[in-house]
Amino acid sequence: DSDDRPWLLSYGGAYNVDLWQFLDGQWQVASELAGNHLFSGAGSFLVSQAGTLVAALPRDFQGPSVVGTWTNGAWSFDPIGHSGTLSDTKVPLTLSAGGNPHVAFFDVVDGAWTLFWQVPPAAPEEVSPYNSNSLEFGRAAIAVTGPGDSEVPHAFFNRSNGAESFELIYATRGAAGQWRNTSIASGHQVGWTWSCGDVPTAEGVRCTVSFDIVRPLFSIAAGDEVRLFFSSAHVDGDFTSTCATTYMPAPQCRFVGPVLATGSLRVAWPYPEGVQSAIVVDDVLVESATGLIDAQGGIHVAMAVAELPGQDGFSGRSTIRYVEIEAAEHP
Question: How far apart are CA 301 and CA 280, in angstroms?
Fold first, then answer.
């Protein structure tokens, strides 16, 4: 905060969230949000330049999710969304230069998943339909540029183009309230899972897979510029079924075989004619990432990188890597 004190928001059990502060060399509970039916995820949590603590707190189906503001030792709440049907336990949250909270979230309207943007306590606005009844791979991020009444939100998300196709979308809001969508990249999905169809029932059945993965990670804004970070990967697999006789009456079979994967951490930026992108780190399979920008314009990224697959596919192990992108020097 403005006094350089660390704060932490954590799940306290039984649908409760605890706010902690570090004082006198130890962590102490500053507030217990008990009885609020909050999801197990503590949500997004930021500190404004004025030192105000702001959190996006998803609820279960007992009422609307909220943006909570902690000021002078007390919480105040504004509802977000249309219901308790928000998609995730983490609602993307950012603060404008003036300290206004901006959130993006998937909500159900007329039976369909839709991405919304909101500056509570104002009502939410529709950004884009998700185009699918399944939100398994839905991801979104939000950034904001401009001061005061000139604040401009920038949404970064993926949406379905069909049963096995997704595209990354950058959307910005015009002065008249309309949203302009620009496609950045496309792929088959945003997760590492795939299917060879039905479980094999015999030895030696072959299955091959080949697909592209695109995944929105986070976005950052400074001044009037926006940076959109996403992961991109290509996966090839060649599997053959193997069977083992167990106590079950029929043999138990599964697909095994090598997987080859290549990927990168990428960044995109809008300009008047469209959106450009570039590779930040190559030969990495990025599962998730977050980032911050410092006072000098440098960007600091922490990312979870999956272990490269081998003969038996993905191991499920990952490591945390840190990347610093230095600010460009302008003549």
Answer: 10
DSSP state letters, 243-279: EE--SSSS-EEEEE--EEEEEEEEEEEEETTEEEEEE
286-301 exposure pattern, b = at least 16 Cβ within 10 A, e = fewer:
bebbebebeeeeebeb
Cα separation, 55 vs 68, in Å, equals 5
Mean pLDDT score, 57-83: 75
pTM: 0.85
**For residue range 295-326, what is the model confidence (pLDDT) as tens digits?**
888 999 999 998 876 655 566 788 999 999 98
Question: Among 16, 6, 25, 118, which residue's Cα sits nearest to residue 57?
Answer: 16
Rounded distance, CA 104 to CA 142, Å?
A: 6
Cα–Cα distance measured from residue 1 to residue 46, given in angstroms and rounded to the nearest whole number: 9
Q: Tell me the two tokens of residue 206.
A: 């072959």
Q: Which amino acid is at 295?
A: A
Residue type, 62: Q
Please enumerate in sequence order all residues whose Cβ is within 8 A of that of 257, keeping only pairs 6 or more positions apart, or say none. Answer: 237, 238, 239, 240, 311, 313
